[in-house]
Design brief:
The chain is mainly alpha-helical. Helices cover 62% and strands 4% of the residues. The chain is built from twelve helices and four strands, in the order E-E-H-H-H-H-H-H-H-H-E-E-H-H-H-H. Strands 1-2 form a two-stranded antiparallel sheet. A two-stranded antiparallel ribbon has the order 3-4. Helix 3 crosses helix 5 and helix 6 crosses helix 7. The longest helix is centred in the middle third of the chain and has 21 residues. It is globular, with a radius of gyration of 21 Å.
């Protein structure tokens, strides 16, 4: 495969040890090593842009934007974190591509809202670096010195539109799509039986999982809102939600 004149099948590969030895020299300004380091990590960019292949964007454009994220990751990576470079770089690349998609989205969001959202994401990253754990929305708002509601509103405003055919959950079998969670007013004949089945399946869940499912799919709350209310990270909410849906599917 060739993107932006780069034959991706011929990209070099560096070991974890080689990368850690090169990073201080790269950040010190060694141009030759910097070029080598970037080329050896372009596969990270490729792996990320595959996630956005259904957006109708040119792969070359996403590849170039992803490379910007990769370069930012190289410049800001700190060996003291004791994590693999790829672990640090992939979220940076994803973030750069998402910013590009948001800024070029047909649904226009005001500049002030976008600025607030980006400042919130930077505040979140700063809190993660300082505390080593996922902060709550209240903590992010306090870090920024603004009301929590403004942070929630700004972050919700820049969320990407989701396709009805976006998979919500997939355990290797039949996937659950967004459209499966959307109410259809024309289908009321057997809705009460479905509701009974769902409620029965929910009774088999633990209290926390039950609350997460109720807030997510009955109240329409975001994972970040659920995480803030329960007092756990968004990543934990995501894992518990997937496990709960899987258990409910077995029960039903």
């Amino acid at each position: 495969m060739e993107l932006c004149g780069v034959d991706t099948s011929k990209l070099p590969v560096l070991t974890h040890r080689e990368m850690r030895e090169m990073i201080p020299l790269v950040q010190a300004g060694d141009r030759a090593l910097r070029e080598q380091f970037i080329r050896s990590n372009l596969r990270l960019v490729l792996s990320v842009i595959k996630r956005f292949s259904n957006r109708g964007e040119y792969a070359d454009d996403l590849f170039q934007v992803g490379c910007i994220g990769l370069i930012k990751a190289i410049d800001h990576f700190d060996l003291k974190h004791n994590v693999r470079f790829s672990t640090y770089a992939v979220p940076m690349i994803i973030g750069e591509i998402r910013r590009y998609l948001r800024d070029n989205n047909a649904i226009r969001v005001s500049r002030s809202l976008r600025d607030t959202a980006y400042r919130a994401m930077k505040a979140r990253d700063a809190l993660v670096d300082r505390t080593g754990q996922e902060p709550t929305l209240a903590a992010v708002a306090e870090e920024m010195g603004i009301p929590r509601e403004e942070v929630v509103f700004a972050l919700d405003a820049i969320q990407d539109p989701v396709s009805l055919f976006e998979p919500v959950y997939n355990d290797g079998g039949d996937a659950i799509y967004v459209m499966d969670q959307v109410r259809d007013e024309r289908s009321n004949d057997d809705s009460w039986m479905k509701m009974l089945s769902i409620k029965e399946a929910m009774q088999r869940l633990g209290e926390r999982e039950k609350k997460i499912v109720y807030m997510r799919f009955f109240q329409g709350r975001t994972q970040m809102e659920v995480a803030d209310e329960i007092g756990i990270s968004q990543a934990q909410v995501s894992r518990l939600e997937k496990a709960a849906l899987k258990q409910m599917k077995k029960s039903m």
